[in-house]
Amino acid sequence: MRRRPLTRLLAVAACAALLGAVAGCGDGGDSEAAGSTTVRLGFSAWPGWFPWQVAQEKGLFAANGVEVELTWFDSYTDSLQALSTGNLDANSQTLNDTLTSVSGGAKQTVVLVNDNSTGNDQIIAAPGIADVAALRGKKVAVEQGTVDHYLLLLALEKAGLSEKDITLTPLLTDAAAAAFVAGQVDAVGAFAPFTTTALGRAGSRAVATSKDFPGAIPDHLAFDSGYLREHPEQVQKVVQTWFDTLEWIAANGAEAVAIMARRGGVSEADYRTYDAGTTIFTREQNIAAFTPGGDPTHLDFQADQIAEFLVRTELAPGKPSLDGLLEPKFVHAVT
């Protein structure tokens, strides 16, 4: 689940940056593992990342000549900490979280866009609340610093409101959804599968979703910058495997869904409902996203917007540097 207790994550990232391999902080980016060609890759419960399971089960990493130690994290936060402390070489995570880690001193580089959220992140309101404007004066539960907090602020701004116009109730996403179903709050910001939980409240509806803000919530593959520097050929093979996996999924849809649903712990029917809300990026869409530009479809623009959000909400001590954050050469080199 995409959870982010950011103060803890910032502390972990800073510790990794300052102390490297000192006991109690974990391995740094230039740790002993940086000498290994095995790629320690983490992922967790988000539909855009389940193709990694397909790659592993169908031998597609091996087909590209790369040895991958694929690790599933029940706790998304644990995967973020593992990358920041050098216990992973790469992780699938949101742009928000990569920038949070960078704010804390971690050295990470985005090499691939897995997907954009196009509906699976939602602001869900109680009966009688027809739109975002009607949230004025209402209690809204959301996990602070998450992409759904970011989505809430975007939606409020579009409606001519700000966070000061609502009563924000900070809760972890699962608890927020439960509080909404119990009638303790008037609205909730959540991501799939907790959107399904929240919509279980009779008469509730989504008044804003990530579909309304194209490009605002990109999910991607981030590498430890030290590992990338030492082993660019392994990074290239992992990126190549991702696109080979997408081809395999397109040709073997039923089997692919079975694999991904099993990994997600949901039925195949439930898994299929997530398709429209998560847009997996093609190579061409990746290249377009990595190309510098002045609107939300471009990663550099979105990274700048998110960096300002982190500072404005005091979830980062200062605006993180974007230098070296985005590296498109691996996507360009895919055959």
UniProtKB/TrEMBL annotation:
<dbReference type="InterPro" id="IPR010067">
    <property type="entry name" value="ABC_SsuA_sub-bd"/>
</dbReference>
<feature type="signal peptide">
    <location>
        <begin position="1"/>
        <end position="23"/>
    </location>
</feature>
<protein>
    <submittedName>
        <fullName>Sulfonate ABC transporter substrate-binding protein</fullName>
    </submittedName>
</protein>
<keyword id="KW-0732">Signal</keyword>
<comment type="similarity">
    <text>Belongs to the bacterial solute-binding protein SsuA/TauA family.</text>
</comment>
<dbReference type="Pfam" id="PF13379">
    <property type="entry name" value="NMT1_2"/>
</dbReference>
